[in-house]
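Q: For a teaching session next week I want to show students how multiple molecules come together into a single three-dimensional assembly. I've collected the sequence lines for a complex. Could you give me the predicted structure tokens for the whole thing so I can convert them for display?
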Amino acid sequence: MRTFNASMIINVVLAYLFTALATVNAGEGFEFTRDQGSDLYYTGAGWLKVSALYDDYPDHFFLDADIGNARYRFVVDTGASTVFLPYEVAKKNGLACNPAVSQTASGEMQSCTATLPELDVSGISFSNIQVSYPMYPESKELEPWPLLGMDVLGRMDVKYINQALYLRPKTTTDYAPWLLECLRTPHLICKDPLSRD
Amino acid sequence: MTSHSSQPKIVILLQYTLIIALALFLLYLGVKDRPNTPFLQRQLVSTGLISEQGLYLQPVRIEGHTEHWFEPKPKESNWILVDKIPLGDNNFYPVYYSVNGFQILRRNKTTQLFMSHGWLNKTSVFFVFDTGATSTLISDRETLAALSPQCESQNKTSSVDTIYTVCVSHLDTINLDGFMVNDTAEKTASQVLSYTHLPNWRNVKDKNASDHNLLGMNLIKGFNFVIKNKYLHLKPSNTQLFMVSPGIASLELTNANIQREYDH
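A: Of course. Below is the structure for the complete assembly, covering every listed component.
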């Protein structure tokens, strides 16, 4: 006898939602304006399009991710094993410090590792993410970007086609609830977690 | 008391002949019935990169359609082994392509980062595939010694913990195991055929100094890539920065021809 569990039903519903909205938008995708950070663009097939946001970094890809009640701009970095956070961001979010040594482009660095309970990557949600951050504050002139490393990228499908980068969770259950709520609304008005309304 | 065979020699000879003939007949039947017999003698990879010896096509039914695999094949894939990079001690780094012409990159088991290999001015170099690096960075001292960089200009750059100065030097050729820089493109010379390195690389004594080489966005932007099932599939994009070597192009063409021949 075949059994259906909750996750199967949710998957079917989510797949239906994306299919239905893709039909409404004739495959054009969905663009969300956000109060904070950059706007989001999802294709009809559920791919998040990641843009090069700065003229100074035309070949790099940036996206906004939420930790707690704050939004940070990350660089998509296949050269980082895990998520990397600047010292201030880690301390602001009260992360613990398990001492470690990290290999960087310039050599070894005294660092900390910790587990982030929740990371919302522009509508794709992950829990229990391993992160690393410097053990000591960086020099003030440095201002490093947070890095979205392979630990998180490995949980998604990634494609880079004609100099545009697209990300999609491996399972539809990894779409954040607020994004799904956003997709359900008839006029595609997005109420993301950090909305001022 | 002992017994002796009383068979004449001619009978024994006939028995051996019969056994050998039967063995040859069975061998003939076995070869005749192999589904891939028409392809056995085919030259699959004719020019360019070194091919694995003894490759042959084997049609395999996968999820309702036929794929052509080469032997010896990696498990559950349709990859083609096109080259083996010597690592010493009889170890090799295998270079795989899919039948669609994508180069397959694998993750380093320790760092979980995708590794790439190529030839810079005919020097063998392993890289970390790094979308976070603006330019290609060479840190391995042996590689730098082989390349003899000229430090044509200097730039400021940064890692997560420090700001430092790097030299920019240029290359004559880049061949990422079958994907070569198209040096006929005007913008290629300055953007793609370049790499960075520490100015004082000869004097670096710090044992903690990085010896990793990074394949940066100045090269990656010439490709399309897809990460799926723990592998990175890489192929030149329409930017024309990279061209496919004749060996790889013929591999893809040969596969297409064989596919058509088999399907009809």
